């Protein structure tokens, strides 16, 4: 991947999408994703010129849903230029970052709605909470996510947990999800029942990160740890915490007594953040089942089966 410019230069680099992004979007049907990938190098060049940025390099390997370029602003301040892939979470990300205004999350410096480009404060992209021991990482994660749970702004455009999870119902009900999913049918049915019950009596409607996990909390200069990469929506805190329960699931499975470890995680996180234990357990089971099926559909058999096993432990 080529990505080199001289300071102050804007038109001498070639910005190729990271391989992980190409692989992830290659599984997305339809013309928009393919066309966006083809146009992305030119989009990056134009945005660099428009905002007077120089770009030493592209973050590699990059994410599954965006490309990030490390840049320097005209006044010499480092920043990160992010281009989210077209989709339902592209515009809400900017809205959520504006609402948080740097409180617990990376600060949004500029936003270009036509391209979706986000100019963000520079964090230490190679240092996340996953670099810490498990107990310390969970403690720091809980302190960070607590700051994000605020009232959504009036007239917001965020989707709700009920709406987002409703889109996954056909996936969980599909009879063509493969033999492992068919074996797990009672578990998937339980996940569907839990989802229906939990969305029917949600106790609160707060702004959530939506995909909160240790790898999405990076070290910063302004604050020790700041969240990045939200898929924002509104709903109850237990939904956000459920993804954290599943964090480092492969490490947990490789250790002793994984089911007991998961139960302790649920208890510790629920009690420390004043979240109902049973609601957290229910959402963790649902999210493990949903993620497991999605991993199976993406050809990640080992991870998918392990997530379904996690759902069973919960």
From TrEMBL:
GO MF entries: kinase activity
Keywords recorded for this protein, A-Z: Kinase, Transferase
Superkingdom of the organism of origin: Bacteria
Protein name: Kinase
């Amino acid at each position: 991947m080529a990505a080199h410019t001289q300071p102050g230069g804007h038109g001498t680099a070639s910005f190729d999408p990271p391989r992980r992004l190409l692989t992830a979007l290659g599984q997305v049907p339809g013309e928009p994703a393919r066309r966006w990938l083809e146009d992305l190098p030119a989009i990056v060049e134009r945005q660099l010129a428009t905002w007077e940025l120089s770009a030493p390099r592209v973050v590699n390997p990059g994410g599954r849903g965006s490309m990030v370029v490390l840049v320097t602003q005209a006044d010499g301040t480092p920043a990160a230029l992010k281009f989210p892939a077209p989709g339902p979470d592209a515009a809400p990300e900017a809205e959520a970052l504006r609402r948080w205004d740097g409180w617990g999350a990376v600060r949004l410096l500029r936003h270009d709605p036509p391209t979706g480009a986000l100019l963000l404060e520079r964090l230490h992209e190679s240092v996340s909470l996953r670099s810490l021991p498990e107990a310390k990482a969970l403690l720091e994660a809980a302190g960070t996510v607590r700051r994000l749970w605020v009232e959504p702004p009036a007239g917001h455009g965020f989707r709700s947990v009920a709406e987002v999870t409703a889109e996954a119902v056909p996936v969980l009900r599909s009879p063509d999800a493969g033999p492992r999913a068919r074996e797990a049918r009672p578990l998937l049915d339980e996940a569907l029942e839990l989802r229906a019950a939990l969305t029917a009596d949600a106790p609160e409607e707060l702004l959530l990160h939506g995909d909160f996990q240790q790898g999405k909390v990076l070290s910063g200069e302004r604050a020790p740890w700041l969240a990045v990469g939200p898929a924002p929506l509104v709903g109850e805190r237990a939904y956000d915490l459920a993804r954290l329960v599943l964090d480092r699931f492969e490490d947990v499975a490789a250790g002793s007594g994984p089911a007991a470890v998961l139960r302790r995680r649920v208890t510790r996180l629920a009690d420390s953040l004043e979240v109902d234990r049973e609601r957290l357990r229910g959402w963790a089971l649902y999210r493990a089942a949903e993620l497991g099926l999605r991993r199976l559909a993406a050809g990640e058999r080992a991870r998918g089966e392990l997530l379904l096993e996690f759902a069973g432990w919960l």
